[in-house]
Amino acid sequence: xxxxxxxxxxxxxxxxxxxxxxxxxxxxxxxxxxxxxxxxxxxxxxxxxxxxxxxxxxxxxxxxxxxxxxxxxxxxxxxxxxxxxxxxxxxxxxxxxxxxxxxxxxxxxxxxxxxxxxxxxxxxxxxxxxxxxxxxxxxxxxxxxxxxxxxxxxxxxxxxxxxxxxxxxxxxxxxxxxxxxxxxxxxxxxxxxxxxxxxxxxxxxxxxxxxxxxxxxxxxxxxxxxxxxxxxxxxxxxxxxxxxxxxxxxxxxxxxxxxxxxxxxxxxxxxxxxxxxxxxxxxxxxxxxxxxxxxxxxxxxxxxxxxxxxxxxxxxxxxxxxxxxxxxxxxxxxxxxxxxxxxxxxxxxxxxxxxxxxxxxxxxxxxxxxxxxxxxxxxxxxxxxxxxxxxxxxxxxxxxxxxxxxxxxxxxxxxxxxxxxxxxxxxxxxxxxxxxxxxxxxxxxxxxxxxxxxxxxxxxxxxxxxxxxxxxxxxxxxxxxxxxxxxxxx
Length: 490
Description:
This protein has helices spanning 2-61, 139-143, 152-163, 168-181, 185-199, 204-217, 319-326, 333-337, 343-357, 362-375, 382-386, 394-399, 405-420, and strands spanning 65-68, 115-116, 123-128, 131-136, 222-227, 230-236, 246-249, 252-255, 269-272, 297-306, 309-318, 378-379, 402-403, 424-429, 432-437, 448-451, 454-459, 482-485. A hairpin with a 6-residue loop joins strand 2 (115-116) and strand 3 (123-128). By secondary structure, it is α+β, with helices and mostly antiparallel strands. Helix 5 packs across helix 6. The chain folds into 2 domains: 65-75 and 110-272, no CATH class; 297-485, C8orf32 fold (Roll), CATH 3.10.620. The longest helix has 60 residues, at 2-61.
């Protein structure tokens, strides 16, 4: 009997456990439905809130426009640079020196036209500096055509059309691409520009309107303006921007960084005074990403004289990275000094130079790198080469046939940090940029400067034949206008 009772108890316990399990499952399913309903309710509320914001902004766009003026771009180096750079009197170039000549450069890699993905409706594929990017789009974006005359009513109608389109998926895809490619802010802006151009090829007004909407929806502070039939975009940037026209709306400065001519053709124009209901951010160009492009190898042969010998180097660099950096807004000198070369350039140029510097003492290695920066590149001012000031990132000095003082300073500083591990600073004089290095044992007669309690010895990459400690005569007796701290080095 006892065993029978025990069995009955076990059965009863099992039935209770099953019943409790069923109740728990029901409770969990009920909880899950409630949570799902709560999420759906939150999404519906957010969607309604977003629609209200867009409707309010569209109403503002109908009337909140007035005429603004664009201003000439700021200039960092105002004084003219020397057209002929001096040669150090104590060191004469050897007769057998082979003067560097401009190389024949490969034409830019033609952009790959966007193409629809097979079997996937309303999806395009674009090539972004060698990276494949797929994105979905609303067909209304391709069908849109602006009117013959830009107007506040047309801008408002465009915003309303876009706000009613299916854009959330594309925003999410670009956000994922930014993370995957490790893009900086300017990289994301450039990707959106590629998308706008692929959606409306050859139609600049439609491209600008699409780009305006996409960037605002991505959280960037961008202003749309128009004058006659022309439509312009002005972008808020965290850092100062040079050689680019700008305007001011309230307390915010906006730059024409998306214009091919940097805004030179823009005069007076109309833009709206109202702010978008959500707080927007300025584009951060404090650093430039150099590792996202898929390498497109280009070659250049460099030669320079050192101690009566000619050193010849075969160097590879990333042509796609040059294309990206070419459109990067011109900003503070620290940006150029702190941006490294591509891994392709590092693997070639640094490896070639290291074959020589590895067996040299510190001072001789600095002089060797000075000789490279002074003699391996032909000199020409930016005004002569481009008709305007243009500062080079390291990669660009390998592409363009000429460079000048700030470009050589950027190149030299990178080489000294990477190959010798030394601290370097940039020195800006009226009409001239040079560098100074922290030698372990500087000579008493060497030209130098004190900075933050440390002695830095002048090392001028533009003063032909000069060794470390020799200052260009025109600047030997004056203090620099500005010292540019550079990251890295011991």
